[in-house]
Fold this sequence. Notes:
five-stranded mixed β-sheet, 5 strands, 218 residues
Amino acid sequence: MKKVALFCAALLLLAACHCERKTTGTPCRKAACRCAQTASCKAAQKGACTCAKKAKKAPAKAQKAKAARADKKALAAQAAAEKRASTQAEALSTLGTATRTGNVINVTFKEPIRFAHNSDKIDARSNKNLDATANLLKKQPGNTIVVKGYTDSLGDPNYNIDLSQRRAQAVADALKARGVAEENISAVGYGASYPVATNTTAQGRAQNRRVELEIKVK
């Protein structure tokens, strides 16, 4: 009777160990299997370990595949945007020099946007230029546009930054008034930074007093 009781107790412990592995997916607790270091209990522990490893690997593999699909989609979108930018750069070249880097186009006006002396008031002579610019920008409503203002190096640097900001904003406002979506356009003033010519001559300073466009094609 004593042997039978011990045998039944061992079976109960093994059943509890097996049940825990099935319901929780975790290996048998060492304390639960201490009573019977049998081949079946060791196999159960090994099986639980194998299942746990598979459960850990599956999500990692799925995440890797998901990331690969996202990267592929992003690359395709970038390539498409660059293709559109190439076509748009050609159209924008009617305004001046349009250089493209990836899906970003920088436009330097052939006919500069003119302002009253030491002011952000746009000269009426630039209205035709602004009309042509707005007409081209409105054809691509998904793009984002930054109007960038610059000055020459004469005068106080802080004042020059403020003046360049106000002039860039004046051009942005003029384009909005001509139908360019307000949410797509912003303005930044750089003062005398990034000169395109020498500031030691009147001609060079005139070239540095300019407004440019940076267009990001989506």
